[in-house]
Write a structure and sequence with these properties.
Elements lengths: L14 E4 L3 H11 L1 E7 L6 E6 L2 E6 L5 H15 L3 E10 L9 E9 L3 H5 L11 H13 L5 E7 L10 H7 L2 E5 L2 H11 L2 E11 L8 H6 L2 H8 L3
Parallel strand pairs: 1-4, 1-5, 5-9, 6-7, 7-8
Antiparallel strand pairs: 2-3, 3-4, 5-8, 6-9
Helix pairs in contact: 2-6
Bound molecules: 1-O-phosphono-alpha-D-ribofuranose (R1P) and uracil (URA).
Uracil binds next to strand 5, strand 8 and strand 9.
Length: 232
């Protein structure tokens, strides 16, 4: 048991899918896994372990934002021995050619958060995906004929910004979309020398104003999940 996860040792698999939304964790477990058991309900942040094609795999909600995912990633790695952490999240398109429903595989995560600048005394750490998981995800997507875009994403502390034009500079530097956790996950994984990857589905377009419904954010995104499940 850890402060925020009341699982017993051995109840969590070495490979875990991490959606921000705990109800998406429930949906993934119930839709894709066999023999599931719920190992965590602390703070409503549901966590499940089951099997996929005979392999043990877990799925855990992380909440929204870098501080929240950092807590779960830290405890999963240091208290439960998790080795492969795969975020499966929603994101907002900030580039014209990134469309609703697109799957984005995040090679790197830029951030407007001050977290890493605090951690590195003003230095700029570059949070990147682990090559192993990234390479496997690209091969899986190609094998399954799932189209995707791979590149840099922005992990922001804001969902509602004062000025939507804030994103233009990032987009001009080829950052594909905005979400709120990948940079935190990649940094914690690097610190502990384990593997992490964020796979995202575009749920909003900050270019066109399109938005998915709450239900779609909870229980769609099949292509992203199909890729993630093969990485264990
Ligand atoms: O769909 P999830 O995984 O929660 O990810 C995105 O959605 C939330 C905002 O609605 C933020 O957590 C953002 O990163
Ligand atoms: O952080 C996020 C996630 C989804 N959509 C957005 O616009 N922002």
């Amino acid at each position: 048991m850890s402060v925020h996860i009341n699982a017993k040792k051995g109840e969590i698999a070495e490979t875990i899918l991490l959606p921000g939304d705990p109800l998406r964790a429930k949906w993934i477990a119930e839709t894709y896994l066999e023999n599931i058991s719920c190992y965590n309900e602390v703070r409503g942040m549901l966590g499940y372990t089951g099997t996929y094609k005979g392999r043990k795999i877990s799925v855990q909600g992380t909440g929204m934002g870098i501080p929240s995912i950092s807590i779960y990633a830290h405890e999963l790695i240091s208290e439960f021995g998790v080795k492969n952490l795969i975020r499966v999240g929603s994101a907002g398109a900030i580039k014209q050619d990134v469309k609703m429903g697109d799957v984005i595989i995040a090679m790197a995560a830029s951030s407007s958060s001050s977290l890493n600048r605090n951690r590195f005394n003003g230095g700029d750490f570059a949070p990147t995906a682990s090559f192993n998981l990234f390479d496997k995800a690209i091969k899986t997507a190609r094998d399954q004929k799932i189209s995707f875009k791979a590149g840099n994403v922005l992990s922001s502390d804001f969902f509602y910004t004062d000025d939507p034009l804030d994103y233009e500079k990032w987009a001009a530097y080829n950052v594909l979309c905005v979400e709120m956790e990948a940079a935190g996950l990649y940094s914690i994984a690097a610190k502990h020398n384990v593997d992490a990857l964020a796979i995202l589905t575009i749920s909003d377009s900050l270019i066109t104003g399109e938005q998915s419904t709450a239900q779609e954010r909870e229980s769609t995104f099949n292509n992203m999940i199909k890729i993630a499940l093969e990485l264990g």
